Amino acid sequence: MYKNLRWKLLTITAVFVIFFGVGVYPMLAAKYHWPSPGWLQSKALKLGLDLKGGVQLTLKVNTDDALRATSVATSEQLRDSLKTATIPYGNISVPSPTVFRVEGVPQDREAQFRTSADEIASANYDRNIQTGGNYEFRMKPTVERDLREQTIEQTLQTIDRRVNALGVTEPSISRQQADQILVQMPGVSDVARAKEIMGKTAVLEFKLVEAGPASKEDLLKQYNGNIPGDLEMVPGSGNESAVYYVVKKIAPVNGQDLRVAKPGLDENNQPAVHFELKSQGAQKFGKLSGENIGRYLAIVLDNRIVSAPRLEGRITDQGRISGGFTAESANDLALTLKSGALPASLTYLEEEVVGPTLGADSIRSGVIASVVGLMLILGFMIIYYKLSGVNAIVALIFNLVILLGLMAYLGATMTLPGIAGFVLTMGVGVDSNVLIFERIKEELAAQRGVRASINSGFDRVFLTLLDTHVASLISAMFLFQFGTGPIRGFATTLSVGLFVNLFTSIFVSKTLFELELSKRQTPALSI
Amino acid sequence: MHIFTNPNFDFVRWKWHAIAISWVIILAGVFVIWKNGIPKGVEFSGGTIVLVKFQQVPDLDRIRTVLPGGGSNAIVQTYGDPAANQVSIRLHTTGVEAGQGLGQTADTVVNHLNQAGLGPISGPCTPGKTNCVAGTRIVGPTVGAELQRRGILATMFALAGILVYIALRFRLSFAVGAVVATIHDLLITLAVLAIFKHELSLNVIAALLTLTGYSMNDTIVIFDRIRENMRSMRRDNIASIVNAAVNQMLDRTMITGGLTMLSVIALYFFGGEVLRGFAFTMIVGIITGTYSSVFIAAAIVVIWQGRTPAKVAPAAPVAPTASAKKTGKRARAS
How far is A271 from A275, CA to CA, in rounded Å? Predict the structure, then answer.
């Protein structure tokens, strides 16, 4: 019995010391500038954005964009092959992201058309014949699902690279719902620039110029008001946004062929972006520039023409984009190009900026509330349960220290609602002790003797405690499922608190009673 | 020390009165909600909140009038510690939910304040700075609608999960009693929130879900004692068994309720602006949770068990069913 008790006490002390070291000491050390080794500090309890300050953005990935791009690319491929096979057609259009239509295929060429079409589109699209030589191609549902999934994954990675390139410390980028992404950037308060860099699609394409620059009306006149299907009209950018070009729809080289992009200066000492191409891209670029010497090549960024220099000779693996950049915009463009294009545009659904002062206020009021709550409970327990109340207090303090330590160890995040969970854990935590003590009182009143009363008090209440804790855990679990950031912090604190509470109220509290009993011959319980 | 010395109140006798009182409060709440609606926090309704820290707080009405649209739908109030000179400005609109447009309303608010000479407000706050933006929060309509749906779903799943757990651990009548008591608590709390015109925010929903757990706790403790009494008081009727259990647990019920209340009151007064809604909801919920486990949950068990007379020995009905199944199987096999 005694030996057993010594082991229990040793275990409890060890647990306390370890969790105090992990959970509480680093916080105190940070506040009062005590010495604390780096590995310990790195384990310190993480603070949520609402306490630390920073920017939180919820983005929606418009996956339709990627689907539409695929449909357009496939339909253009088909147009090309129809041209090569000299199959006439009326019109090719993309009425919705997952559908493209070919109209007016003559009856005698339909068999040939189907062969061509199936070669290009049958892997990803279902072909439906409509009347009058009209065909509708609909993306297969499995392909659509995969493509959407892929788009979101790719967007996540791209945003991750961009945010890291911004130099944010400890950013968090996570997938939220089906097509939503949550970006948390602690310590950032300039939301505008962050949004600009994150949201830029940065689709870079090199397209041959067919006509322009000129005004929209002049260009239309040149083509008798009807621009051919394989060409498109694209506006210039910056000061030249009223100027339009007609370019080829197909871009032989695009941003995916880029290897390096870095800010620099052009020959007039104006800010520009230098780029280098991957070997495959260099081959394509060499072919494109070699075959078209003397023509103009449009550099198209996000469907606007940045510049359209004349091809003076064969260019292979490097080049320069210049035209109306400031040092910062050249820098940002290089950053976004390097991190890769976004496969789809983004929509901001929610944005929150917590200034550093606001976070500090929250921490202060949270700590005050915790201390006041603790004092009130301690006061009551000592007055009502006397010496046994001290037992409950020790258990409660253990509970809180282990809770903090465990959260730090698990890498959980403390948020403002998490502090509420912490305060609540104190209230609910002493409940276990109250249950046990009330039971012991009952047993004592029934003249069972101190030792027997304590034992049956703990034994009988155990199942009740298990039931109540499981019920609370169930609701905390759904709370975690439901919430984002701060609320998850609350649910985590609450759940961890429940587990710890079972340990302290049963093991710690009981050991303390045993210690009390072991000291005296005929003990009387102060309860 | 005891709060009640050997209490022997006849709680069960008052069950119909209790149920009537609860209905009155719930219906009052329903009436208020029907008449005024529930004010929703920005997370649910969507909208823009700009938190401005002034050097000296201008007249709030003056701020309201210079806001876009004359401030007709705006909520302008001081925020947090009055000494902090912070004003929360909430509009029900956001910029367009497309591309980067969402934040435009927030920028407009700051511009309007500056044009009216209430600033100059420049950029985000850093320690020691005033006339700055301490924080913004912009929620587009999509997120708000989705959150509402998920909040309701989470509460329902939590209730269903606990129902199943209690049905497994106790018996169905107990489970129904506990869940009805919890729904009762949620309704009463919502009613009181509506009557006091408290805003339904994310934190309030968190409090409601916490209450689901808390109210269950309280009920389970009493049910546990009822179950124990069913074994030791076989000759008594269900009403006296339940009464005995509630009376035996009365001290504990009051102490636990009181202690949790103390911690939540500390949150209410010291936890800051953000947690006040949470704390208020918890205060209401703890009161009704304590009341309902005494009056409502136990009453339902009495009413339910009262219909199925006498035999209350637990686990008794399980055995014959199981053996019947077995014999049935054997019969089919042979």
Answer: 13
What is the strand order of the sheet A180-186 is part of?
A172-175, A180-186, A54-61, A346-354, B132-139, B47-53, B86-91, B75-79
User: Does residue A266 share a domain with residue A370?
Assistant: no
pLDDT at B310: 45
ipTM of the complex as predicted: 0.80
Residues A186 and A306 in one domain: yes
Distance between CA atoms of residues A434 and B89, nearest Å: 45
CA dist A159 and A58 (Å) reads 12
A347 CB near a chain B CB, below 8 Å?
yes
**DSSP-derived secondary structure letter, A87:** -
Of the two residues B129 and A371, the one the predictor is more confident about is A371
The model's pLDDT over A12-30, given as tens digits with 9 standing for 90+, comes to 899 899 888 888 888 888 7
A477 against A239, higher pLDDT: A477
Mutation for B interface: A357, A362, A372, A466, most B CBs within 10 A: A357
- Whether A473 and A340 share a structural domain: no
pLDDT range class, residue B313, cuts 50, 70, 90: very low
- Given a contact cutoff of 8 angstroms between Cβ atoms, the answer to whether A502 and B239 are in contact is no
State pTM to two decimals.
0.77
Task: Calculate the average pLDDT of chain B.
Answer: 81
Query: Quick one: angle between helices B15-36 and B298-307, nearest 10?
Result: 120
- Answer whether residue A386 is part of any domain: yes
Determine the structural domain holding residue A106 and report its residue range.
64-140
Contact at 8 Å (CB) between A218 and A239? no
Domain annotation covers residue A325: yes
Residues A183, A149 share a domain? yes
List the domains of chain B with CATH numbers. Answer: 25-39+144-307 (1.20.1640.10), 47-139 (3.30.70.100)
Domain-located, residue A260: yes
Residue A12 inside a domain? The answer is: yes
Q: Which of A105, A140, A175 is the last residue of a domain?
A: A140
C-alpha dihedral over A321, A322, A326, A327, to 10 degrees?
Answer: 50
pLDDT in tens, B76-89: 888 877 888 888 88
Please name the amino acid found at residue A63. Answer: T
Domain boundary among A351, A375, A402: A351
Q: Distance (Å, rounded) from C-alpha A435 to C-alpha A427?
A: 13
Counted domains in chain A: 3
pLDDT digits (tens, 9 = 90+) for A111-158: 888 888 888 888 889 988 887 788 899 999 999 999 999 889 888 888
Query: Which of A183-197, A199-213, A221-235, B312-326 has the lowest average pLDDT?
Result: B312-326
Tokens 């014959």 belong to which residue? B320
Same domain, A179 and A114: no
pLDDT tops 60 at residue B128: yes
Tokens of A363: 């921490």
Asked whether residue A361 falls in the same domain as residue A428, the answer is yes
Q: Residues 187-246, chain B: which have Cβ within 8 Å of A?
A: 202-203, 205-206, 209-210, 212-214, 216-217, 220-221, 224, 228
Residue in chain B lying closest to A468 (CA): B217
A400: domain CATH number is 1.20.1640.10
Q: Does A248 lie in the same domain as A128?
A: no
Contact B55, B85 (CB under 8 A): yes
Residues A360 and A345 in one domain: no
Q: Are the Cβ atoms of B224 and A464 closer than 8 angstroms? A: yes
**What confidence category does residue A48 fall into, taking pLDDT thresholds of 50, 70 and 90?**
confident
* Mutation target among A57, A351, A362, A433 for the B interface, most CBs of B within 10 A: A351
Answer yes or no: are the C-beta atoms of B219 and B200 closer than 8 Å: no
Q: pLDDT tier at B330 (50, 70, 90 boundaries)?
A: very low
CA atoms of B305 and B312, how far apart (whole Å): 8
Mean pLDDT score across all residues of chain A: 84
